[in-house]
Amino acid sequence: MSFPHTVRRARRPGAAAALLVAALISASPASAQPAARGAAYDLPAQPLGEALLALGRQAGLEISFLKGREINPGEQLR
After folding, report:
1. What is the pLDDT of residue 15?
2. What Cα–Cα distance (Å) separates residue 44 from each residue in 41, 50, 54?
3. Burial of 54 by CB count in 10 Å (0-12 exposed, 13-18 middle, 19+ buried)?
4. Higher pLDDT, 56 or 37
5. Who's near 50: CB < 8 A, 6+ residues apart?
6. Average pLDDT over the chain, rounded to whole?
7. Averaged pLDDT, 11-34
8. What is the chain's alpha carbon radius of gyration, rounded to the nearest angstrom?
9. For residue 7, is pLDDT > 60?
């Protein structure tokens, strides 16, 4: 009379595999999306805050960021 117990135990791996496949399929990216077009930006070497502002101007975007403490490279090595 252990037959129902055996059947119940045999269904678990199949159900787990089906759930895993469903999760992987739903998480895959859509392949019908058009490719993003590239863009070129000309940004000279400068402090990060200024570079982000210049990037925003060139890209036509408004970039928000928090400005932190300014440290020169020599201080970072100490």
Report:
1. 77
2. 10, 10, 9
3. middle
4. 56
5. none
6. 77
7. 69
8. 27
9. no
Q: What are 70's two structure tokens? A: 């300014």
Q: Which residue has the tokens 């070497």?
A: 45
Backbone φ, ψ for residue 56 (5° rounding):
-60, -40
Which phi-psi region, left, alpha or beta, contains residue 35 (left: φ > 0; alpha: ψ -120 to 50)?
A: beta
- Calculate the alpha carbon distances from 2 to 13, 14, 35, 62 in Å: 18, 20, 57, 67
Structure tokens belonging to residue 58 = 């060139």
DSSP 7-35: HHHHHHHHHHHHHHHHHHHHHSPPTTSPP
Which residue has 């469903």 as its token pair? 22
